[in-house]
Design goal:
The protein folds into two domains: about 180 residues, Rossmann fold, CATH 3.40.50.300; about 170 residues, Up-down Bundle (Glutathione S-transferase Yfyf (Class Pi), Chain A, domain 2), CATH 1.20.1050.90. The chain has eleven helices and 15 strands. It starts with a helix and ends with a strand. A six-stranded antiparallel β-sheet has the order 2-1-4-5-6-7, covered by helices on one side. By secondary structure, it is an alpha/beta fold. The chain is globular. The chain binds adenosine-5'-triphosphate and magnesium ion.
Length: about 350
Amino acid sequence: MFAVCGKFGVRMYIKELKIENFRNYKIEKINFIPKINIFHGDNAQGKTNILEAIFYGSLGRSFRTNKDKDLIKFDEDFSNIDIDYHKKDRDGKINIKIANRKFITLNGVKIKKLSDLIGNINVVIFTPDDINILKGGPENRRNFLDVMISQLRPQYVYNLSNYKKTLEQRNKYLKQEKKSEDMLEIWDQKLAEFGCNIYTYRREFVDKLISKVKDIHKNITGEDIRIDYSSDCENREEYIAHLKKNRHIDFAREYTSCGIHRDDFKTYINDKEIDTFGSQGQNRTAVLSLKLSEIEVINDEIGEYPILLLDDFMSELDQGRIKKFLGSVQDIQVIITCNNKIDIDNSKLFEVKEGKIE
Ligand SMILES: Nc1ncnc2c1ncn2[C@@H]1O[C@H](COP(=O)(O)OP(=O)(O)OP(=O)(O)O)[C@@H](O)[C@H]1O
Ligand SMILES: [Mg+2]
């Protein structure tokens, strides 16, 4: 928990954000404090747009759209984002200009690959849609793990994309009319190689999350949380044998029925499965605990706390949970959006009105 082990922790933080022609903002400069920053205002005023600009400046992509063009203010032809940030060993400046394509500079030097941008500012975001991590299908949980691990282990991305390619080829073959089981051998070997590597990373990071989440969740809610991760790829030999045994089933179904593309983790609150028995607020709090655990895992990995972006986070959490939670993030920079003004120690308030900060 931050309040305990993060007490003297090192945090990175954003000092200043300048945006021009970004979503509904003409031009705006915002100075942040290293602690809690609260953007409040009515609906559709531009609160989430601020988080989006920060996220975009950190990762080079949005969490709301795949189309960069959507970010440019209507009737304008470019958009500009400048971020000044502080890290333990250095300060830095990121500039991204979005026009027909995007141009990124780091401390005035042009960046060629997006991967050179990622990792300069680390952010963890929590949006209302994240409830799907626990309530939605297993692909949401795999995606949560993939996004976290990709930022910390470049080799993970390599293994994952090779696994996906192999799976696609195998599934394509399974759909053919003429096929023989022996032909699957080469794909099965490859699936086992990449799949078991991915399993090893996922196991490592799920274990890291588990080691954090129990205390964090208990502190906010008083509830017990448990996470069980399961995978077909825990053991290479067993997985290959499993693939072999299932070949006739795969032939009939025309897809690959076992592998890390079916991985999942189940979450239990007080020994009851959360997606079946949890309330909306319990689901949201459990996702929040997962995200807080992710923050701790990142800190363990890079020796510095990332920035926490919380979109609309007050909705569905009662006052007690909000207070406990905010008390636990005193040592990191938090940027929050909400409808109503809230009064918290060590925080700076910004009112957002029609694309202007007051
Ligand atoms: N490219 C764009 N150009 C101009 N305005 C835009 C653009 N994209 C979105 N908007 C406007 O931005 C506003 C929404 O901003 P945002 O999502 O930040 O609202 P919000 O304050 O977070 O609201 P809520 O409380 O409902 O979540 C809308 O009025 C929308 O029309
Ligand atoms: Mg919003």
